[in-house]
Specification:
The protein is mainly alpha-helical. It has helices spanning about 5-20, 25-60, 70-85.
């Protein structure tokens, strides 16, 4: 497989090899690809969680388990939940 890089990316790869952290350019590329896979897996996990939460909400709404929406309280609760996830 051949990969073409922009001059900036090629320079970045070369700098990583020159730093001694990596032995070859291939190691740098493999590490970058591993991170990309990890990021996509995390994204998919978050999407799956969101879909589960939406399904629960739809089920609760279908059962009449709903309350009036208070936008300010809901946004504050969502922000707090998002911040706690970032902290973990």
């Amino acid at each position: 497989m051949n990969v073409s890089l922009t001059p900036e990316l090629e320079q970045f790869v070369n700098q990583k090899v020159e730093s001694g952290k990596y032995q070859t350019a291939s190691e740098v590329i493999r590490d970058g690809l591993r991170l990309l896979v990890e990021r996509e897996e995390l994204h998919q996990t978050k999407l799956d969680e969101l879909r589960r939460e939406i399904a629960i909400g739809i089920e609760q709404a279908d059962q009449g388990k709903v309350a009036p929406l208070n936008a300010k309280e809901t946004l504050a609760r969502l922000r707090k939940k998002r911040q706690s996830r970032r902290d973990n």
